[in-house]
Amino acid sequence: MPALVRLSMSLDQSLNDRIDRMMREGRYASRSELFRELVRRRAVEAEWDGNREALGTITLVYDHDNRTLSRKLTRAQHRHHGNVLAATHVHLDRHLCAEMIMVRGKARQIRELADELGHQKGVLHSALSMSSTGKALRAAGGDAHGHGHAHPHGPRGRKGAHAHP
Ligand code: NI
Which residues sit with Cβ closer than 5 angstroms to ligand 1, an ion? Predict the structure, then answer.
């Protein structure tokens, strides 16, 4: 258990009111938990801002009837094979597909890949979820499983169902 530090701080009344509202909404068990999450979130943002090694997921929704597009998306992933950890394809309905691509690498490379994929003609929606390899989270006092649920450990390694960077 790391040592705990108690701190007091000064805040504008309006910010404090906002925190009270967030507490009432029940998203956080305590103010401490809220601040811990904010600090970790900021630490991950700093990794991305500083073009550090990062982890992310690119989600694409596109029309499967567009054969050229499917090929282009696959080709782009092959070109960036060093960044692509795994990809899952989901058939949403008769025509629409979703692809979730787990990526790891320098933040800028991941952003560029997300842009390249998301800007292909025929992609209806794309989103980049920006997460962390865990280095910033350790430095920010979080353990690797600080996200509030227990789970069994999958096989180690890049292709494992459950990645532990
Ligand atoms: Ni499909």
Answer: 64, 91, 97
